Amino acid sequence: MPDTPNLDERHVQPIDTDRLLPAERATHAPRILLLYGSLRERSFSRLMTEEAARVLTRFGAETRTYRPSGLTLPDDADADHPKVQELRDLVTWSEGMVWCSPERHGAMTGIMKTQIDWIPLSLGGARPTQGKTLAVMQVSGGSQSFNAVNQLRILGRWMRLLTIPNQSSTPKAFLEFDDTGRMKPSPFYDRMVDVMEELMKFTILTRDNKACLLDRYSERKESAAELSKRVNQKAI
Fold it and tell me: Which residue of 29, 40, 199, 226 sits 20 to 30 Å from the alpha carbon of 59, by its own alpha carbon?
């Protein structure tokens, strides 16, 4: 018998496979939000997200892409700013996300980070990102790099997103798109397709059992303590 004297047995629960593997599954198209990190007229991160959205639609997703033009800097406006509200509404709507950033000065762009910074960890008593899926991609002007996707992974973990294992990094992106803005056939295109396919699978696997996946011992214990404190207070 394991010796676990530090556990509060009132809040230890066995793994509930019925909740983890529900028989009834959602039948609507997975809802995927795509964010990109450049405002250039010929933005390769935007072109990449447009290609990704086409592939996701082919796999059966409903996609929406946020246009960051006009989004104010964090804390430079109130949360009721129209572009902030638009972004937050889309995050709440989504079941999964794609983040695609150019690499600028060895990092994700400020435009990409600004969008993520406007997404709160808590919104109206709910956590708008927790338990949702995330795929990360980057485009580079030079040789292949993984700086941006590595940073995006850190942010995804911080936002409690289920970031999928696969990722896409496209070097010399200016060579990978034709004059009409469509991505050319290449191993980089194939990798993007792989990432979108994996995102769809993880989203379908996890969206119905999110409540079970996010049910944590520490939070049950903390919630019980807060409830006890509130119920037993001597004055209101």
Answer: 40
